Amino acid sequence: MDNSSGVGVLDKAAVVLSALESGPATLAGLVSATGLARPTAHRLAVALEHHRMVARDMQGRFILGPRLGELAAAAGEDRLLAAAGPVLTHLRDITGESAQLYRRQGDMRICVAAAERLSGLRDTVPVGSTLPMKAGSAAQVLLAWEEPERLHRGLQGARFTATALSGVRRRAWAQSVGEREPGVASVSAPVRGPSNRVVAPVSVSGPIERLTRHPGRMHAQAVVDAAARLTDALRRAS
């Protein structure tokens, strides 16, 4: 077996996972793709299914399981958080507003990093804050590039429309004015992972009195530049 680690069962499990990378496989397909004996392929696939590294589709075929996505997201988040501190601090310093980074968590979004405005009236979103996916420029960014079915589901009860999200995709940034909280405006742009999937929005937020009712005119370019720096950091780390 190529790339042998000397631990046979792990090598075989890795071969099973690699075979599923190209798509769903029946047990016969798995045997053909891996060269493993049928009982061995079955035993390993079922064991990996127990650990959620393998799952089944509607036709009962083996597919890669949710645990792999969770581990990949955790690894990506570590790299993202490592790069986020100086980028958010720079964004705060050049805009004069609080800067945040969010990740999606189910039907909510969570603030995973922030650089607070040093003085004056602030829009504080502490790290760990959980906010809805139904309002705010960061929520718009997280939904705008979703698959059609998830996008449609996400729009139900949202404070923004499909037309607004179309504009977000066209501009590659979003703004909100009093959408999540009265008196607060924000601007967000997407951070993309190595596969070009949107993994997080980077945002600035503050009172409408400072950001005006057209906050994108003031801060979109700075936020887009910050998102591009984080995107580059993730791609270099992959």
Automatic annotation (TrEMBL):
Keyword terms, alphabetized: DNA-binding, Transcription, Transcription regulation
Domain of life: Bacteria
Pfam family, one: IclR_C
All residue ranges annotated as the IclR-ED domain in the record: 67-236
SUPFAM superfamilies: GAF domain-like, Winged helix' DNA-binding domain
Domain HTH iclR-type: 7-66
Protein name in UniProt: IclR family transcriptional regulator NdgR
Organism per entry: Streptomyces synnematoformans
Organism taxonomic ancestry: Bacteria, Bacillati, Actinomycetota, Actinomycetes, Kitasatosporales
Gene giving rise to this polypeptide: ndgR
